[in-house]
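Observation: inputs received (chain + iron/sulfur cluster).
Thought: call the complex predictor directly.
Action: predict_structure
Action Input:
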Amino acid sequence: KKALLEVNNLKQYFPIKGGVFGGTVNHVKAVDDISFVVYEGETVSVVGESGCGKSTTGRAILRLDDPTSGDILFDGENLLGLNKAKMRKKRKDLQIIFQDPYASLNPRQTVRQILEEALEIQNVVSRKERRQKVEDLLQTVGIGAHQMDRYPHEFSGGQRQRIGIARALSVDPKLVICDEAVSALDVSIQAQVLNLLKELQQKFQLTYLFISHDLGVVRHISDRIIVMYLGKIVEIGDKDSLFENPQHPYTRALLSAIPSINVGEKKKERIILKGDVPSPIDPPAGCRFHTRCPYAMDRCAVEEPKLHSLSEVEHKAACHLLEDGPYDYS
Ligand code: SF4
Ligand code: MG
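Observation:
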């Protein structure tokens, strides 16, 4: 297994306007010291509620926002060491697909113009070959060549997402970050787009970082899953092990909210968390989840839990309950 992406101790703190008070500047600690690896050809999902730092992580990897600290190694090269021009070239290898492709597709350009422009910017094929490449790309994502002179508004949401995917693939990327890429679509269309992404992964040897608020959606597409809460990784593991034996109380709560999924052999009860996600400006001390955790103990409010290794296959979770191995929740 070759690591394609290595994120080490990534922090992304955003200063708050007007946050200077008594000499201190307040920050939103959107991502607070996370590390993970993505291997070539796999799909790693990053899951959590909105505000947990998952999109921020994706944006930092692409350097859409420069991180506060940490390392991001891509193919062995530290992206944070690249200047703007070099990073722009690198974008050929790292593409992103957003939730709402409509917002990123120029409404005044036809689909063909959109794709030709992407090809031109990265200089992927000669001018002569461009038209053929656009036709091929559209066919690959299931859109007929006869539709290429239409504008984005003439397509359905699912078709527009296919166009967004075609644009991302036009430059032959290695890593594609999908940020809530199917979240805005109807369930049946979601399944179609997820299947398409899987097919394309095989065909073009793609690696995916799949960002979603919904564990149910990522279930079929993921090889491994990272669960985030308030800027921290709380659980990371191989998909089957995470679904069959979730170990962090937060992961268990997220899974219990998906009606079609059973946790372990036992009939699953819905775990309702109290309160809302606290503010990332001044996150709770100790375990950040302690204000909502049904298992919280005194020490949880003061002592930050480490990621504990739980099995032979990769499975780790950050919770004091797991110091001596997996916890028996039955
Ligand atoms: Fe709950 Fe404590 Fe574990 Fe945090 S460390 S998840 S508060 S039991
Ligand atoms: Mg987001």
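Thought: report the result.
Final Answer: The mean pLDDT is 91. The pocket of magnesium ion (ligand 2) is lined by residues 50, 55, 180 (CB under 6 Å).
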